[in-house]
Amino acid sequence: GCVSETCTRHRRYDASASPTAVDIDFEGKTLAANEMEERDQVAISYGIGEITGEFVRETVCLAVSADSRSCVSMRVIAATEMTPEPFNAFDFDGVLGLGLAGLALDPEFSFLGQLSSARNLAEDQFGYFLSRSDDVASEISFGGVDPRRVASELHWSPVHKPELGFWQVKVLSVTVAGEALPLCADGDCVGVADTGTSLLGVPRQASQRLHWLLARKVNVEDTSGLDCRETAGPDLVFELEGGVKLTLGPEDYSQAKPMQVPKVGGGSQPVCRAALLPVDEVE
């Protein structure tokens, strides 16, 4: 198990306390007692950090009641080491991967895939609701979409190159306040839906222009109680393949706190900025 300070901040999984846990190697074969000392490990990057872990086959359930329809046998990685950054800052204790099969080390690592293979889902779908307020919990649903959490009619855009494993879609155009950016003029733009980040990733060469278009000056002296997500700003619109238009308002793309920009001659100007992450394009 993991005994570092980073791990002890969290609730830890103990395979020895589980009647359904089986220690396995990289290929999924059960380990004999004399193979436990030098067992296979894997290192996985997560954001700016890394997890090192060992392989276990376990029964994983969605519900505490362990209804057989909500349980699957799958392979999991039990952490033996976690870097302080970013895991010291996280409240959650584990990561449930929801990528497509192309990203999995083996199909048995895919929770959604195993649920689907066992025909335990009403529909091969999941939906996630990201709350705007700490007073309302975010949610994820398996087997369909919770209609109580849907803000509008559902629209569907096809996954682009699903063999890569990402929930990736083709982006036909990007506009800010009606101004089309030349970013997607050549027709090869793509975007990835990722629940593991709170930032909006944009190509590095376009990030400065997009920052400028989405920035708003705030003409108040005291910004201590200012929330930029509640400050008026232009719409950011993504046109996706399949006739889908995704519109983000300032409440979706803004950083909460304004940035203080120095003025010529002294003082500073508070500016509301977008939460953008410059991303280097990979060929």
UniProtKB/TrEMBL annotation:
Coiled coil regions, renumbered to chain: none
GO biological process: proteolysis
The entry's keywords: Aspartyl protease, Hydrolase, Protease
GO molecular function, one term: aspartic-type endopeptidase activity
Domain Peptidase A1 stretches: 1-283
Classification via PROSITE patterns: PEPTIDASE_A1
InterPro entries per UniProt: Aspartic_peptidase_A1, Pepsin-like_dom, PEPTIDASE_A1, Peptidase_aspartic_dom_sf
Protease recorded as keyword: yes
Similarity section: Belongs to the peptidase A1 family.
Protein name: Peptidase A1 domain-containing protein
Organism annotation: Strombidinopsis acuminata
